[in-house]
Design goal:
Blueprint lengths: L1 H11 L9 H30 L11 E6 L7 H14 L3 E6 L6 H10 L5 E4 L3 H12 L28 E7 L11 E7 L27 E5 L6 H14 L5 E13 L2 E6 L8 E6 L4 H9 L5 E6 L8 H18 L4 E5 H6 L12 E11 L6 H11 L5
Parallel strand pairs: 1-4, 1-5, 2-3, 2-4, 5-6, 6-7, 9-10, 9-11, 11-12
Antiparallel strand pairs: 7-8, 7-12
Helix pairs in contact: 1-2
């Protein structure tokens, strides 16, 4: 199954299908047929929502949807966390709704990062039902038209005392295709490294909807922009502008901050811990290329990679394969390699990675940052967020 998933992804992002291996080429007719069925079902479902046959739920507080048009690696969850912290700084207690897909690694990471603060995390496929459970427990307060904390610099943190646990806004993680819940703000995330793939719908391509769905968005965010050539960023912007010329575009990156050891989550290690080291990047995420490229910038002597498909749950056989690769690296370089994983990989199963002992396993912790580009910056993003949510600045 892992081989099949990998082959499907390689087909989806292939620039030239004629150069694909024979096994991959044999899958294309089946994937093409499945893609046609998917497109027909998508069109029918959308029309049923537009006609009112399927009902949409309206929540009593503003709803922000953070989603994407392609599978994985678009920075949705880091953006959800960024927005949640921003709203909390303004004195608004947000509720994050996430479906907890494939073991809930993203939900676990959000809960760990936001523990002890005013942000609440609800996990479940029925977002409206989960939201209502939290409204019953904590109450709600519509923040539209409310006066937010005055600040001379939007980038400056405020010591905001939230006098009530009442929920003031909802943020949907991976919400663009969740049409049963009305939203006030639609943010679409785009992976700058692999924006549209081959342009086909799932499963032949990576698109969950046609590109024209960008018309529904209020904000577009190009993620991993620091790893993309300027010319490619221009091409991405051109595609967006052809579909919706007025759409505000922002650019983001993941900024590494520190490591911690899987054997002790409370340890904080400087990024220099991998200087001149042999590093094996192990990941099961949507954009492993971004992870590996980012690690290469931290100064290791050599970076090797061991990729699994997105949300893959590590098994004992995987640990054995990783051990064998580590042994090969140790023999080749006469140095004990360091394993580095992402936070999502750690949160999926914090215990199994400890089985790689005596090899050291580090978790790379990063924060999303908005990159100043063409006049767009973090201050403008937060100001636009307030304006679109009709919050009084």
């Amino acid at each position: 199954m892992e081989k099949l998933k990998r082959a499907v992804k390689e087909i989806a992002y292939a620039q030239d299908q004629a150069k694909l291996p024979k096994f991959h080429s044999s899958l294309i007719p089946f994937l093409s047929f499945a893609s046609s069925i998917y497109g027909a079902v998508l069109t029918l479902r959308h029309s049923l929502y537009r006609s009112g046959f399927f009902s949409k739920h309206r929540l009593p507080v503003p709803v922000i949807s953070v989603g994407n048009l392609t599978w994985g690696g678009n920075g949705k969850t880091p953006m959800v966390e960024f927005i949640a912290k921003s709203l909390a700084d303004y004195g608004i207690s947000p509720l994050i709704l996430t479906r907890g897909y494939a073991g809930g690694d993203e939900a676990k990471m959000l809960q760990r990062h936001l523990l002890g603060g005013p942000v609440k995390v609800g996990v479940g496929a029925n977002r409206a039902a989960i939201a209502n459970m939290f409204f019953v427990k904590y109450g709600y307060l519509d923040c539209r038209g409310s006066k937010l904390s005055e600040r001379t610099n939007l980038d400056q943190k405020v010591e905001s005392q939230i006098n009530s646990e009442k929920i003031g806004a909802v943020i949907m993680d991976d919400g663009m295709q969740h049409w049963s819940l009305c939203r006030d703000l639609e943010i679409v995330m785009i992976n700058g490294l692999m924006p549209w793939g081959n342009g086909h719908l799932l499963p032949l391509g990576p698109l969950r909807e046609p590109l024209k769905a960008l018309k529904r968005a209020h904000i577009a965010v190009v993620h991993n922009a620091d790893l993309v050539l300027r010319e490619k960023l221009k091409d991405i912007e051109l595609v967006i502008r052809e579909i919706k010329d007025s759409l505000p575009i922002f650019y983001t990156k993941m900024d590494p901050s520190y490591f911690f050891d899987v054997s002790n989550i409370n340890t904080k290690m400087h990024l220099e811990a991998v200087n001149d080291a042999v590093v094996l990047c192990v990941s099961a995420i949507g954009s492993a290329n971004a992870f590996v490229q980012g690690m290469g910038k931290l100064g290791p002597f050599y970076v090797h990679r061991f990729d699994f498909t997105d949300h893959h749950s590590f098994q004992n056989k995987d640990i054995q394969m990783i051990r064998e690769r580590l042994g090969e690296l140790e023999d080749n370089f006469s140095s004990k390699p360091i394993v580095v994983v992402t936070e999502k990989d750690y949160d999926r199963d914090p215990e199994i990675l400890k089985h790689l002992h005596p090899f050291q396993v580090l978790v790379l912790c990063s924060e999303m940052q908005i990159i100043p580009h063409k006049g767009s910056n973090e201050d403008q993003f937060k100001l636009l967020l307030k304006e679109l949510l009709e919050l009084e600045v």
